[in-house]
Write a structure and sequence with these properties.
The complex is a heterodimer of chains A (129) and B (361). Chain A has one domain: OB fold (Dihydrolipoamide Acetyltransferase, E2P), CATH 2.40.50.100. In chain A, the strands form 2 sheets. Chain A has a 6-stranded antiparallel sheet with strand order 1-2-3-9-8-5. A 3-stranded antiparallel sheet of chain A has the order 4-6-7. The longest helix of chain A is centred in the last third of the chain and has 11 residues. Chain A contains 4 helices and 9 strands. Chain A is an alpha+beta fold and 129 residues long. Among the domains of chain B are: 143 residues, Probable tRNA modification gtpase trme, domain 1 (Gyrase A, domain 2, 2-Layer Sandwich); 80 residues, Aminomethyltransferase beta-barrel domains (Elongation Factor Tu (Ef-tu), domain 3), CATH 2.40.30.110. In chain B, strands 11-12-13-10-4-14 form a 6-stranded mixed sheet, with helices on both faces. Classes of the chains: A alpha+beta (129), B alpha+beta (361).
């Protein structure tokens, strides 16, 4: 069973969103479940800081040995920061998906896409595994 | 419903990610596929290959039957030795690539890919009809476990008295491993030294555990199909369905050397292959190394100055080179300056000779 921290929100595309309650800037990454399903991540492409995105936009890519997946922004707003460390060392996605493997930060404008609680995301992923 | 090998419960207990491969539920990886890949390059890896097919051809004319059915000269094979060969259709198109072991004067074992062995067994039976030879598909009775890597011989030597140093590459001998009857073959699909052990289904689990224990001090780890694929790609070895298929001849794949025109008698595909053997193919199989970090993958177009000049057949990040690599069919004469269209972005590639990796002997 993958780690699914209670305090985060989730998407059906296996991303997590932190900080939704406290601030207008949120942090986004992929879940441990997604990291395990991908296998060893070898390449991460992230958007440019300063770009404006709409909720549900494809903003980047995660490549593993066997597959490639798109990264979506679950919220609309301005990309205020991207994690250069994960670009330089994509294995951070596997080793610390909720920590050093974070991907980008968005200053939120408008309402996010339909998000899932930890409980709902647990149900989603146990249905798939 | 996927079929399972005798080792399925072992894979699950090791936490493997299982995947459907050619109708079989097989381990894709146990943990990190990069670590499994590196273990095979530097120490050893343990593979379950029980999905492969074993077809026995026996009888006084078994060798002649195989000479007619396959492109190789199998009747010339010395007992105890093996050959890489192919079965083609009348048009010279590849139906499968095979390893044929001569076990005795009148006994051969044909090892075929999981996706093809039923078709191969049926073709062999049909083609052997005029000969005094019997064809029997015994795939359901045999498991296949491979130990691959520079420490493979040391590991296997702790479990058998067989003369491993005397066993040459592409040779196989019957022996006893951990008290169980096995065909011990020095073959593989990783670019490393190593052994493939054909055993009865019921011996697969105890043999796997014995090899795991014996290999522990040497750094052996279980390895799944994901690392098997990146290992064979680095070694420039073709995969049926990617580099080989019914619309390609052995010459298209740069493997015309397996076609033995000088053997006696006719063989299926001879006239079609003789017609093309001196004709340069329209496309040839090449190696590509990416300058960037994005990975060229199966089916992506190869381009030059924006025009399509080929197609990627296999691609992956290479652990050994530290860069993405690919095999691709590219128009003869396309030359340098190639790119691969990776989801709309044309990524520069360097053209290299295959294989990407060759072990130090």
């Amino acid at each position: 069973m993958s780690d699914i921290p209670d305090e985060l929100s989730y998407t059906k595309e296996h991303e997590w969103i932190a900080g939704l309650d406290e601030a207008i800037t949120v942090t986004i990454g992929v879940t441990a479940y997604a990291a395990e399903a991908l296998g060893d991540v070898v390449f991460v492409q992230l958007p440019d800081a300063g770009a404006t995105v709409a909720a549900g936009d494809s903003v980047g890519e995660v490549e593993s040995t066997k597959s490639v997946s798109e990264i979506y922004s679950p919220v609309g707003g301005e990309i205020v920061e991207v994690n250069q460390a994960v670009v330089d060392d994509p294995s951070l996605v596997n080793n610390d998906p909720y920590g050093e493997g974070w991907m980008f930060r968005v200053r939120v404008e408008g309402d996010p896409e339909d998000l899932l609680s930890a409980e709902e995301y647990t149900a989603l992923t146990s249905g798939e595994s | 419903m996927s079929r399972s090998t005798p080792l399925r419960d072992v894979h699950e207990s090791l936490g493997a990610t299982l995947t459907d491969f050619a109708g079989w539920l097989m381990p894709l990886r146990y943990g990190s596929e990069s670590a499994e890949h590196n273990a095979v390059r530097t120490a050893a890896g343990l593979f379950d290959l029980s999905h492969m097919g074993e077809i026995f051809v026996t009888g006084p004319q078994a060798g002649q039957a195989l000479d007619y059915a396959l492109v190789g000269h199998l009747s010339a094979l010395v007992p105890g030795r093996a050959r890489y060969t192919m079965i083609v259709n009348e048009r010279g198109g590849v139906l499968d690539d095979l390893i044929v072991y001569r076990l005795g004067d009148e006994e051969f074992m044909v090892v075929a890919n999981a996706s093809n062995y039923e078709k191969v067994a049926a073709e062999l039976a049909d083609r052997a009809k005029p000969y005094d030879a019997a064809v029997e598909d015994r795939s359901d009775r045999y498991a296949l476990i491979a130990v691959q890597g520079p420490r493979a011989q040391e590991i296997l030597a702790t479990l058998t008295d067989a003369d491993l140093p005397g066993l040459k590459y592409y040779a196989g001998l019957p022996g006893v491993v951990d008290g169980r009857q096995a065909l011990i073959a020095r073959t593989g699909y990783t670019g490393e030294d190593g052994f493939e052990l054909f055993v009865a289904n019921e011996d697969a689990v105890p043999l796997w555990h014995a090899l795991t224990r014996a290999g522990e001090p040497y750094g052996l780890r279980p390895a799944g199909l994901s690392s098997r694929d990146t290992l064979r790609l680095e070694a420039g070895m073709p995969l049926y369905g990617n580099e080989l298929g019914p619309d390609l001849t052995p010459f298209d794949a740069g493997l015309g050397r397996v076609v033995k025109f000088d053997k006696p008698g006719d063989f299926v595909g001879r006239s079609a292959l003789e017609a093309v053997k001196d004709t340069p193919p329209r496309r040839r199989l090449v190696g590509l190394v990416a300058r960037g970090r994005r990975v060229p993958r199966h089916g992506y177009p190869v381009t030059k100055d924006g025009a399509v000049v080929g197609e990627v057949t296999s691609g992956a990040p290479s652990q050994t080179l530290g860069k993405p690599i690919a095999m691709a069919y590219v128009d003869t004469g396309a030359g340098e300056g190639l790119a691969v269209d990776i989801r709309g972005s044309h990524e520069a590639m360097d053209l290299v000779e295959l294989p990407f990796y060759r072990r130090n002997k």
